[in-house]
Amino acid sequence: MESIKKEMKINTSASPALFVSHGSPMNAIEQNSYTQDLNSIGKELNTVDAIVVISAHWQTNGVTVTASENLSTYHDFRGFPDELFQVRYPAKGAINLIPEIEQLIGKPLLKDKNRGLDHGAWGMLVHLFPNATIPILQISIDYNKTYAQHYELAKNLVALRNKNILLLFSGNVTHNFSHANFHNINAKPLEWAIKFDEEIKNAILKNDTDFFIHIDKKSDVYIINHPTPEHYIPIFYIIGIRIKDDKLTFTHMSWQYDTISMRHILFNS
Questions:
Q1: Positive or negative, the Cα torsion across 113, 115, 116, 120?
Q2: Assuming Cys at both sites, which of 56, 134, 227, 240 could form a disulfide with 171, CB separation 3.0 to 4.6 Å?
Q3: Could you please report the per-residue DSSP string of the chain?
């Protein structure tokens, strides 16, 4: 187990980019090492002017963006305590960024004026920036795209890092709920989950893009860790916006429910 206490001094020459493994929706209302580290890094990142977020929990036919000036809070889950359904994250929409992003990717975006933030987004934002004072634009995951196409789209967003915009991605390094021990959040992680987390960590350290794109051929434990791909796809966006001078920090690492790696990945230059 790696230490979760890190030096997190942010250099502002380029806006940081952060990938968060968000785990269970319950993390939004719990206090643990994961939420404490989110709160700590949020204090270092709170000078950004806007946030662009991509979450595993918004998949669409075509790339879509939130187009409302006031973003609602989606409780897109069931079977959890009422306290979780009472959470609200009243963020303003950063709709002024839409034309610039369209220019960067070279095509119009679909615009959803009714869509709010899903729990993959607000579940981490409530700990990163609890005051909800930073405008946010959420971009969907286009389920038609290949892994290589997600990576190419991410590279088109790199220029946003010169605009004091935080690029924030939410998924999970490992995501198998069918094997998770939900009776014990501190259950010992399973070997195949540990193996995949280490593979991802090492590929990031080596900047091995090919490993991520061809993961089904590179890792014999990929499918058991990601029976469906939506929580894996946001990783393409954090590796795609990496720049030459970035410093890599794993700002948090812990395990929950024996199959869920809570690894965070931060790039800052």
A1: negative
A2: 56
A3: --------PPPTTS--EEEEE--SGGGGT--SHHHHHHHHHHHHHTT-SEEEEEEEEEEESS-EEE--SB--B-----SS-HHHHT----PBB-GGGHHHHHHHHTSPPEEESS--B-HHHHHHHHHH-TT--S-EEEEEEETTS-HHHHHHHHHHTGGGGGTTEEEEEEE-SS--STT--TT-TTPPPPHHHHHHHHHHHHHHHHT-HHHHHTHHHH-TTHHHH-SSSTTTTHHHHHHHT--TTPEEEEEE--EETTTEE--EEEEE-
Position 78 confidence tier, pLDDT thresholds 50, 70, 90: confident
10, 44 Cβ separation under 8 angstroms: yes
Interacting residues of 265 by C-beta distance below 8 A, sequence separation 6+: 18, 19, 204, 238, 248, 249, 250, 251
Which of 192, 187, 181 is CA-nearest to residue 255?
187
Q: Higher pLDDT residue, 118 or 3? A: 118
Short-list 105, 134, 141, 101, CA closest to 120: 141
Which tens digit of pLDDT belongs to each residue from 130-145? Answer: 999 999 999 999 999 9
CA gap 62, 39 in Å, rounded:
33
What is the arithmetic mean of pLDDT over 109-132? Answer: 97
- Per-residue pLDDT tens digits for 194-235: 999 999 999 999 999 999 999 999 999 999 999 999 999 999
Q: What is the pLDDT of residues 157-188, one digit of tens each?
A: 999 999 999 999 999 999 998 899 989 999 99
Q: Cα 75 to the chain's mean position, in Å?
A: 17
In the prediction, which pLDDT does 3 show?
A: 35
